[in-house]
TrEMBL record:
Coiled coil: none annotated. This is ADP-ribose pyrophosphatase. GO terms for biological process: nucleoside phosphate metabolic process; ribose phosphate metabolic process. GO terms for molecular function: ADP-ribose diphosphatase activity. InterPro entries: NUDIX_hydrolase-like_dom_sf (IPR015797), NUDIX_hydrolase_CS (IPR020084), NUDIX_hydrolase_dom (IPR000086). Its EC number is 3.6.1.13. The keyword Hydrolase applies. It comes from the Bacteria. The gene is nudF. Gene3D superfamilies: Nucleoside Triphosphate Pyrophosphohydrolase. It comes from Clostridium oryzae. PANTHER family: NUDIX HYDROLASE DOMAIN-CONTAINING PROTEIN, UDP/ADP-SUGAR PYROPHOSPHATASE. Residues 56-190 form the Nudix hydrolase domain. Keywords: Hydrolase.
Length: 201
C-alpha cells in the first residue's frame, strides 16, 4: 500500500458487522506505536489490503437523492442504537459482497424509503469517502441521483426504524436551524442543498 506504515495487525474482537483490530505501525519519527481500528472487514480482507496491495473494498453507499417531481431532497430520520435516539441522515446502507454501487444504491433507496432510483449523476458521485478516519477504515460512495415514486415502509427490514421526508430547500433551511441530531455527512449535504437547491444534483 502506498504510504503504508502498518507492520502488524492483531484481532481484538469480532462480531457479525464490526471488528476491532490493533495495528502496530511506525510514526513519522520511526517509532513503533499501536492504534485500535474498528472495521467492517474481515481479518483476511483487511490484511490483504494492508500488506498485499489488494484494492480497497468500499463498505457502504450514502444516497443524496432528489425527487424530480416534488423538487425535494430525500431525508430520513432513523433510530440509531449508539445514540439511543433518532438522527437525521441520508438514505444509506452496506454494499453486499461484490455488488456494484449502482445496484446497492438502488436497493437501499427502495428498502429504506420505497422510492425508485431513476438516474445517477456519475460526475458528482464520489467513491471512497471517510467519515471518521481516526477510528475506522469504513469507506463509502456518495451517490448523487434522482428518484421518483411514493414513500413507503413496505420494504424495510425489521431492525430499520426509519421515517422518510421529502424536503424543499426552505424546509431544509428550517431543519438546519433546529438542534436536531444530524449525521455529519447529511449536514454537509443539507447545507449545500439549502444554498443551491436542485443545482446540487
Amino acid at each position: 500500500m502506498k504510504n503504508g506504515r502498518i507492520e502488524k495487525l492483531n484481532m481484538l474482537a469480532q462480531t457479525k458487522f464490526l471488528s476491532l483490530y490493533e495495528a502496530e505501525y511506525k510514526n513519522k519519527a520511526g517509532n513503533k506505536k499501536r492504534w485500535t481500528i474498528a472495521s467492517r472487514k474481515s481479518y483476511e480482507v483487511l490484511k490483504a489490503q494492508y500488506f498485499d496491495g489488494k484494492e480497497e473494498k468500499m463498505d457502504a453507499v450514502i444516497i443524496a437523492a432528489f425527487h424530480k417531481e416534488q423538487k425535494k431532497i430525500v431525508v430520513i430520520r432513523q433510530f440509531r442504537v449508539p445514540l439511543n435516539d433518532y438522527v437525521y441522515e441520508l438514505p444509506a446502507g452496506l454494499i453486499d459482497g461484490d455488488e456494484k454501487i449502482d445496484v446497492a444504491a438502488t436497493r437501499e433507496l427502495k428498502e429504506e424509503t420505497g422510492l425508485e432510483l431513476t438516474n445517477i449523476n456519475h460526475e458528482k458521485t464520489r467513491n471512497n469517502v471517510y467519515a471518521s478516519a481516526g477510528m475506522t477504515d469504513e469507506s463509502a460512495a456518495i451517490v448523487f441521483c434522482t428518484c421518483k415514486g411514493e414513500i413507503s415502509k413496505d420494504y424495510m427490514e425489521e431492525d430499520e426504524d426509519i421515517e422518510t421526508f421529502l424536503m424543499s430547500q426552505e424546509e431544509v433551511k428550517e431543519l438546519l436551524k433546529t438542534d436536531s441530531k444530524i449525521d455529519m455527512r447529511a449536514f454537509i449535504m443539507l447545507q449545500g442543498f439549502a444554498e443551491i437547491g436542485e443545482k446540487m444534483f
